[in-house]
Amino acid sequence: MTDTMTRPRACSSAVPGAPGSPPPEDVPPSPPPSGLPAPGGGDRRWPRRVAGGALVLALIAGGGTAGGVLADHYLSGRDTPSAAAVGTTAAVTEDADLAKVAAAVEPSIVTVTVDGARSSVLGSGVILTSTGLVVTNNHVIDATGTVRVRLSDGRTVPATVVAADPTHDLALVQAQGVSGLTPATFGTGDSVAVGDTVLAFGAPLGLEGTVTSGIVSATDRTVSAGDAGSGAANGGGDGSSGGDGSSGGYGSSGSGERLTGLLQTDAAINEGNSGGALVDLSGHVIGINVAIATAGGSTGNIGVGFAIPADTVTAVVKQLQSQVR
Question: What is the pLDDT of residue 93?
Answer without folding.
Answer: 56
